[in-house]
Write a structure and sequence with these properties.
The structure holds two protein chains of two kinds. Chain A is built from eight helices and no strands. Chain A is mainly α. Chain A has one domain. In chain A, helix 3 runs antiparallel to helix 5, helix 5 packs across helix 6 and helix 6 runs antiparallel to helix 7. The two termini of chain A are 30 Å apart. By secondary structure, chain B is of the alpha/beta class. Chain B has one domain: P-loop containing nucleotide triphosphate hydrolases (Rossmann fold, 3-Layer(aba) Sandwich), CATH 3.40.50. In chain B, strands 5-6-7-3-8-9 form a six-stranded mixed sheet, with helices on both faces. A three-stranded antiparallel sheet of chain B has the order 2-1-4, with helices on one face. The longest helix of chain B is centred in the last third of the chain and has 16 residues. The N and C termini of chain B lie far apart (47 Å). The N terminus of chain B is likely disordered. The chains are: A mainly alpha, B alpha/beta. Chains A and B meet through helix 1 and helix 4 of A and helix 3 of B.
Chain lengths: 227, 239
């Protein structure tokens, strides 16, 4: 196993081990995500009828909001005892630390989505499971794109006193294309007579964002993290 | 990012040539020139804000100099690449330990990062820290002194050549201070370059073989260790 992969997987495994012990981030993320969906459900569903495409939008808003919370908390944990500095001292390309943290965030958000999708499907009578593979592809690609940018920014801001404010301010404008592509792709699947071609096109757009965001993040992580 | 080969990280000297680091308008380090060789314990002394921790960060490759050059055995950090970090051990003011994990899990994680034979290295480190019987307990349940001892072993787990310690005696009782001081002497005797930043002049006296006195980001004195450190410190720093 290469040093890069070994370090990335160790960081992932360490994050999972801490989370299994504390259940801190998963519980707050899920609580926030479910609360978000419920608020929208109460606001938008009237006597069983809903605004067209609302379910797709609400699913992605819940993912983005709870993802921001998870990103902040994950790096807050590395700030307590300055453990991020210890990670940066690993004898591996520092981008391996980024990849490990990114995998942890994607795993966490995937867990949240496993709860969110059935919940939104139930509350908004949305046929999410008509095209399960395409939906899974859209969610995975969108989550990776969102987390790729979010992991970089959360790491950059870890020593900033205004990190809680700055993270969403920096993150949302840059990830708007990901959210839009995710919403449009998911809405195409939820339409009367699912539009597979449109969903595949949006999946392609999301994959392109993923490649661009991850490449840029791998390239910039080391210089950004060296004080 | 790829680095050109060869990258032999073993070295027996560290040299700083007019190294400066500015944070905006603040000059944390100002044209520091210093060299240290294997076998030396260099005491970085000075008041708060003198630049000791920044210098440690620069030596650890965590802080990039604004200007100047650092050489590890004649090679630059860029030439050595990530392999350089395999030879650096850092105990910073913050302890770099995950409080949710046990002592053994913490050491296992850091041993893994360095690609070490985990069981052997971890058992030895737990013995050195005097925590073999608390190995499975979460770090959050440890006293400051126990955490400090564990953090020191975490920093030395991979047998670094350059040992950087920022206030290593914080929270330790007298017996532990003696053990840590002995440990540093053994490391130096084995050829390591040891830097110790501390405010405790009584502890530094008799431990360090060289004294680098800093104030306002500048190195104002680089002299041999020995006795009478407090007197010399007062003469140069003023209080």
């Amino acid at each position: 196993m290469t040093t890069f992969r070994r370090v990335a997987l160790l960081v992932l495994r360490k994050d999972v081990a801490i989370e299994v012990k504390s259940l801190e981030i998963i519980s707050t993320t899920l609580f926030f995500a479910v609360s978000c969906v419920l608020v929208f459900a109460f606001a938008l569903v009237r006597e069983g009828s809903i605004v067209a495409d609302a379910a797709a939008g609400i699913l992605w808003i819940a993912i983005a909001f709870s993802g921001t919370l998870a990103l902040g908390r994950t790096f807050e944990r590395e700030r307590y005892a300055e453990t991020l500095r210890a990670l940066l001292l690993a004898p591996a390309p520092r981008a391996a630390i980024y990849v490990g943290k990114l995998l942890g965030i994607v795993l966490l958000l995937t867990g949240a989505e496993l709860l969110l999708v059935p919940l939104v499907a139930l509350l908004f009578s949305a046929p999410f499971f008509a095209r399960p593979l395409l939906l899974a592809g859209l969610l995975l690609a969108g989550t990776i794109g969102f987390a790729a940018v979010g992991t970089l920014f959360a790491a950059m801001l870890v020593r900033s006193r205004t990190r809680d404010i700055m993270l969403p301010i920096l993150l949302y404008p840059i990830t708007v294309p990901v959210i839009i592509a995710g919403v449009r792709g998911t809405a195409a699947l939820l339409a009367d007579g699912p539009d597979d071609a449109a969903a595949v096109m949006w999946l392609g757009v999301l994959s392109m964002f993923d490649v661009v965001f991850i490449t840029l993040s791998l390239w910039t992580f080391e210089p950004l993290m060296t004080e | 990012m790829r680095h050109s080969q060869p990258a032999n990280p073993d070295f027996d000297a560290v040299t700083l040539d007019r190294v400066s680091r500015h944070f905006g308008r603040r000059r944390a380090l100002s044209a520091v020139t210093l060299s240290a060789h294997g076998g030396e314990i260099v005491g970085l002394l000075g008041p708060n804000g003198a630049g000791k921790s920044t210098l440690i960060g620069v030596l650890a490759t965590l802080v990039a100099p604004t200007s100047g050059e650092i050489r590890y055995g004649g090679q630059s950090p860029h030439q050595l690449g990530p392999a350089l970090r395999r030879r650096i051990g850092l105990l910073a003011h913050e302890l770099h330990l995950y409080s949710e994990l046990s002592a053994r899990e913490n050491l296992a994680f850091f041993a893994g990062l360095h690609g070490l034979d985990r069981r052997t290295a971890i058992d030895a480190a737990l013995d050195h820290a005097g925590l073999a019987d608390r190995a499975g307990d979460p770090v959050s349940s440890f006293s400051r002194g126990m955490r400090q001892r564990l953090a020191l072993e975490r920093a030395l787990l991979h047998r670094p050549v350059l040992v950087l310690l920022d206030e290593p005696f914080t929270g330790l009782d007298d017996q532990s201070v003696g053990l840590v001081a002995d440990r540093l002497r053994v490391l130096a005797a084995s050829g390591c370059v040891v830097f110790v930043a501390t405010h405790d002049l009584d502890l530094a006296d008799g431990l360090v073989t060289r004294v680098a006195l800093m104030r306002g980001g500048k190195l104002i004195s680089d002299e041999q260790g020995g006795s009478g450190l407090r007197t010399r410190y007062r003469a140069l720093i003023g209080h």
